[in-house]
């Protein structure tokens, strides 16, 4: 790794990862909780016999609640990224819940359980301190309602007071658990990001070095550079230049049957076999893209290139890699297109690649698992 490559360690920050609300699934959970709170509050307003407000006021409040939840549902995802809207919503829920309990004239009802739902919404707050702070506010709000109710009734329910204690305990426990889980997830995400970064750096370094990251052969960039050099040399020296285009037969079916990991292993084995056949110092085997390979054979005519191609085909088939979904064999096989020419003046290397590609297409059309050479119509001097 180069000296200037910096690997960032996952920072242990006090803030919890709030990106979860930018995730569609977590945002849906949040909206469902908020919707449930809204439904409970609307039900209390509609069916409480002791409500001290008029029907018109109740309908106005319910309409406001429905518009509120609609606004939450259509809030842009980017606004959730910092987590602060959660704090505002929890404070709003607390105020609305407290007001409706008070207006319903029924502080001793089970509506206080709504505070537990609001506490779950508070779990999406940016930090553990904020979540506990919101829970304290929830408890204080309900305590105030109980106190005002006691002034009217002259009694204070010990069971309801116990609910405040339970709410605080649950808030601390749930908050601490959520904090631990999310910190671990944050560390995991940080490590995965580092791994992906290292893989990208490795791929970039291999690209710069001219090596394919998977097979170890030359990559497309190096092939293009070397092929042009060999083309110019062959044209200058008036020598033949051979090219082989190699394709693994029914490789997509192989991936679909055995999985991409097995597909990568297959590519590596085939690449190794190709490299073993192409052994001269000036020859260059490369990965052309996907399951395609290309081989440059300097000072090689069509006959010599075809001999190399057939050795390559036999070597790959001898690997005996199982391929149950192939239509030509129960093993992995290759098709090879061969082309060779003495480069004409004022010509481009693409003509030789095109000739080899046409020969490869012909090998596939005639049944695959075979070697075919360029036809008489190929551009350049036939050798």
Task: Give structural attributes.
383 residues, alpha+beta, Alpha-Beta Plaits, 2 domains, six-stranded mixed β-sheet, 11 helices, 6 strands, 9% strand, rod-shaped, disordered C terminus
Low-confidence residue ranges: 1-22, 376-383
Going by helix content, strand content and strand pairing, the class is alpha+beta
Give the H and E element order.
HHHHHHHEHHEEHEHEE
The total of beta strands comes to: 6
| Mean pLDDT reading | 79
User: Taking Cα atoms only, what radius of gyration do you get, to the nearest Å?
Assistant: 36 Å
Sheet with most strands: 6 strands, mixed
Task: Report the end-to-end length measured between terminal Cα atoms.
Answer: 46 Å
Count of individual domains: 2
Helical content band: 55-70%
Our count of helices gives 11
Overall 3D shape: rod-shaped
Strand proportion, as a percent range, falls in 5-15%
